[in-house]
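Suppose you are handed only two things: the residues of a chain and a line of SMILES describing calcium ion. What would the bound structure be? This form records exactly that question and the answer produced for it, so the two can be stored side by side and reused later without any lookup.

QUESTION INPUTS
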Amino acid sequence: MTFSRTCFFLAAVLLGATARAYPPAPDHVLFGTVRDELGRPLAVGSAVVIVSHAAGEIARTQIAPGTEVGVNYQVRLPVDLGSVGTVYKPTALLPTSPFTIRVLRGGVVYLPIEVARVGPTLGEPGKRTRLDLTLGVDSDNDGLPDAWERALIDRDTTGRVRTLAEVKAGDDLDGDGLTNLQEYLIGTYALDRLDGLALEVLAVENGRARLRFTTVPGRVYRLRSSANLNEWSPQSFALSAAGDVNQPAYSGREVTVLEVWVPLPVGGTAFFRLYAE
Ligand SMILES: [Ca+2]
Ligand SMILES: [Ca+2]
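ANSWER OUTPUT
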């Protein structure tokens, strides 16, 4: 009896050691921004991202504030290295497994246009993959949802664009240096060259530069700075002339002109870039 129990115990240890090391592998993390058909990032708690494959659901997550700026979903997917022929649990994926993602919002299940175009496959264990998701229909398959393209056509009084085919993701219809896809992402009007992403230096006061830019709801704004135009670093800012320089980003809540303050190096030159997502 003692012998039997001892054998069982040893076997369990060996199996356990095997199972921990191989084939289960570190999770693969999928993350990104889920946007509605007009390009607005979905609000926290307004939808659920569901990942599944042929055998059923793998994981789901709520739209949530991300650990990174501009990220509103993150989901961990169990990975199996596939070394023993069967996966260690039914929901585990092989690194090359196809899977699908759906977004449940307001009782409606959406197949994001990025997933409808190309079925994603998982990457390496322990790695992270950014996969931004867009709700809606993209009938001309250019990455821009029909709803956004139709809204642009409806607002155009000049006759420049009349059909979905005439609104191309890579074109710059208003000549402001931003493609239509970029304007969709940052929420600017793609037929007005004055409505784009611009950063103005208003003044230099008390060792700080006063900068100005326009924000729109749902977009997140960040600055980067450089002394030589080659190396760029994240630049925090203050929201008042004497405020602490501790804002790494600003989340737009309305269409407004925002002024921010950044410290300047003594006797040096500084360059700034504005990013929106
Ligand atoms: Ca389209
Ligand atoms: Ca443009």
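WHAT STANDS OUT: The pocket of calcium ion (ligand 1) is lined by residues 138, 140, 142, 144, 146, 149, 164 (CB under 6 Å). The chain has three domains: 22-134, 146-186, 200-276.
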